[in-house]
Design brief:
This protein has 103 residues and is mainly alpha-helical. It has a single domain, classed as Serine Threonine Protein Phosphatase 5, Tetratricopeptide repeat (Alpha Horseshoe). It contains six helices and no strands. Helix content is 82%, strand content 0%. The model has no long low-confidence stretch (mean pLDDT 97).
Amino acid sequence: MQRIERIIEFLNQQPKDNFLRHALALEYIKIGDLQKAKALFTEILTESPDYVGSYFHLAKCLETLSEKELAIEWYEKGLAATKLAKDDHAYRELLAAYEDLIY
């Protein structure tokens, strides 16, 4: 919990810092608060669709929440974003997770 509190303190100073919001969402996943993680990842990607690191984690979070169709949508958005960013590593990671889900 201490880590979450520290990240929140930093976010109070820089509320739109995607790195901090992403880190906080990952901490929420660790403690099982998937709704808070989902909200943060969605906020990040709505405001900054080029922040490609969050697509995988949001989609995985949605899978865990049994929101398969929404997970598929976010995987597809992430695949498009990573292609645009020419981030082959992130693209392959998303593609593998996407294919695991739909096949």
